[in-house]
Specification:
With 106 residues, the protein is mostly beta strands. The chain contains no helices and eight strands. The chain is globular.
Length: 106
């Protein structure tokens, strides 16, 4: 008889695994998304943005950090040293334990 228990669809941790050939200490997981679209969800070397204090960069091993983002171009430096740019109007960035989450259009 099949098990009729409900499936937990709320996934807390990303299903992404760090690439085996990359040193985990030198990368961060970055997720940039809005209510109905995910723009970036992968590992990266850095992410840069703009807040009320000015331009800033988040690198691996950054201290926990939360900020409101001003209109700017968010720039993600991928593990392949490619720069991906995302123009934003506003957002919230949370940095915690090698993870950066950016909520847009809130």
């Amino acid at each position: 008889m099949p098990d009729n228990k409900p499936t937990n669809l709320n996934v807390q941790e990303s299903a992404l695994q760090a690439p085996e050939n990359q040193d985990v200490e030198h990368q961060i997981h970055v997720k940039i998304y809005a209510p109905f679209k995910t723009y970036f969800d992968d590992f990266a070397k850095s992410i840069s943005g703009l807040n009320a204090t000015g331009p800033f960069d988040i690198l691996p091993k950054h201290h926990n950090f939360m900020t409101l983002l001003l209109p700017c171009d968010l720039v993600v430096c991928t593990l392949k040293d490619e720069k991906e740019t995302y123009p934003i109007e506003r957002g919230l960035m949370i940095v915690q334990a090698h993870k950066v989450v950016v909520f847009l259009n809130i």
